[in-house]
Amino acid sequence: MGFPDNFLWGGATAANQCEGGYQEDGRGLANVDICPSGPDRSKIIAGHIEHLSCDKNHHYPSHHGIDLYHHYQEDIALFAKLGFKVYRMSIAWTRIYPKGDEDIPNEAGLQFYENIFRLCQHYGIEPLVTITHFDCPIHLIKTIGGWRSREMIDHYLKLCKTLFDRYQGLVHNWLTFNEINMILHAPFMGAGLVFQKEENETAIKYQAAHHELVASALATKLAHEIDPNNQIGCMFAAGSAYPYSCKPEDVFKAMQVDRENYFFIDVQSRGAYPAYAIKQLQRKNCMPKMEPEDTQILKEYTVDFVAFSYYNSRCIAASLDKNNMAEGNLFASAKNPYLTFSKWGWPIDPLGFRITLNQVYDRYQKPLFVVENGLGTIDETDEHGYVEDDERIQYLRNHIQAMKDAIEEDGVELLGYTCWGPIDLVSASSGEMKKRYGFIYVDVDDMGKGSYRRTKKKSFAWYQKVIASNGEDLA
């Protein structure tokens, strides 16, 4: 058995982490452009420092990324050599609508993505497009407060209609928002939220989330109306929460943490606010303001499939010891004594991947798509720029085997797998180039210095073999 014959193997990137050219050809400024690397990053992406323009006191590696804007032909040709069936990428909102509220889109931005999609078509690669991978135009943050305003729904739907119309026949698979649950953990990066002193941050986050959920439902409606062949997915940052012990308080806390993330997908996939969320939001006086039509919109326009990222599981204790903390994609958790950890302190848990696949599929009974999974680490090159990245190969081998087990032994319905990222790019969590994920090494450092030359790592040939064998040859 193993992987289905039509399984979609590929890789995933995000515009703001790889394109560069952040001011070229009419592109406007977005929140993702002003999230720097360095010590202020965490407070800025959390919305606790109002930072709405670039300055000389911070460094912004995303401004250059890996310059995919000028290298996309070379990069997609390399993806084709890997054997990609699918390429997950995102649209930079401000390449299409630089301020976010214009009546007419920026043709240079539209043409750039059309060129990419046509090149993918040439190589037989299906694009999987994330409409917004954290992008929010700075102009809309300054004028209406980002996603705290319901006006954002109309601006977002205008973007969606433009994309669905322009790329009809070129793109059939879409994701409405990347890691939508990150609005709770990095609300400025996720939704353009900046908080003032003494504001009820939780209430604002959930109000913004409600606006995104309604926007996602209406985008799903629009996509199906424009092209019945369109398939729309939601996407969240997944990773099962283990209780730190069998102490009932730990088990209950782990359940609550899981629910916090499943809430978004419960709405997008099932079509309604779950009872546990309503009760919790009411207790905290954080129930979002809704319009009368919202309930019906959410109910009628649910997604076709559920996509998620998986990097690690989490370990949850009712009383969290700050001296026993693990790191992992902006989520706080206890350190699991049974796991090893990456150079950035993220737990490595391939069996947790299988557990997560089962839990998500059991909960929603819709096709799943793994759209991010990978190992960020420091790569050492030889004199030819070659990287012998055995640690990355081992990580991916174990996770792909776990995914195979979930399909073969557990009956999970899985559409595809796009590892993060097939080529080096700027890390979203740390804002650094030195934290690398790719099968392709890009000669550029955190300061943007380097030749930008692309070199295949050892893992390139390994993943090429995995795809060619449809996941049977993992050696």
From TrEMBL:
GO MF, any single term: 6-phospho-beta-glucosidase activity
Keyword set, alphabetical order: Glycosidase, Hydrolase
Enzyme class: hydrolase
Active site location: E372
A Pfam family that the UniProt record links to this protein: Glyco_hydro_1
GO annotation (BP), single: carbohydrate catabolic process
EC number: 3.2.1.86
Annotated Gene Ontology cellular component terms: cytosol
Superkingdom in the source lineage: Bacteria
Family recorded in the similarity comment: Belongs to the glycosyl hydrolase 1 family.
Name of the protein this chain belongs to: 6-phospho-beta-glucosidase
Organism of derivation: [Eubacterium] hominis
Gene name in the database record: ascB
